[in-house]
Amino acid sequence: MTDGRLWLDPDRARRGGADLTLAGEAVYASRRQVGGAIADASAERPWGRDDIGAAFEKQYRRYEETLLRAWEMVGRSLEGLGTDVARSVAATVENDDLTGREIGHLPDQHQFPQRHRR
């Protein structure tokens, strides 16, 4: 923002939105691949099935579920943010164009009769 004005480069903003969407897709794909491998490996309970392994399992599983859920949510949120940016840019450009056309239809101030002073 400069001099109280908002400057928007629609093409650059659209590219930024597309980049966010792609980043979200990449994060989500990583979650499915790497996160899936983590979940698969932990399902085999490599820490053992004795009392110590069971205690570890109880604590570990909560953290694993939280991490995997958060990882998925970050990916989906980035994708959604990219979509929202694209939608916002389109609405802003459309509104700006409409406002510009409406302002163009306003009568010129100098066409109104001048008031007479008494």
List the helices and strands and how they pair.
Blueprint: H1 10-43, H2 51-104
Describe the structure.
The protein is mainly α. The protein is 75% helix and 0% strand. It has two helices and no strands. It has helices spanning 10-43, 51-104. It is rod-shaped and about 95 Å long.
What's this model, at a glance?
The chain is mainly α and 118 residues long. It is 75% helix and 0% strand.
Can you give keywords for this protein?
single chain, 118 residues, mainly alpha
How far the N terminus sits from the C terminus, by CA atoms, comes to 46 Å
Largest sheet: none
Number of helices: 2
Low-confidence stretches: none
Strand-residue proportion: under 5%
Q: Which range best describes the helical content: under 10%, 10-25%, 25-40%, 40-55%, 55-70% or over 70%?
A: over 70%
Mean pLDDT: 89
Structural class label: mainly alpha
Shape: rod-shaped
Number of strand segments: 0
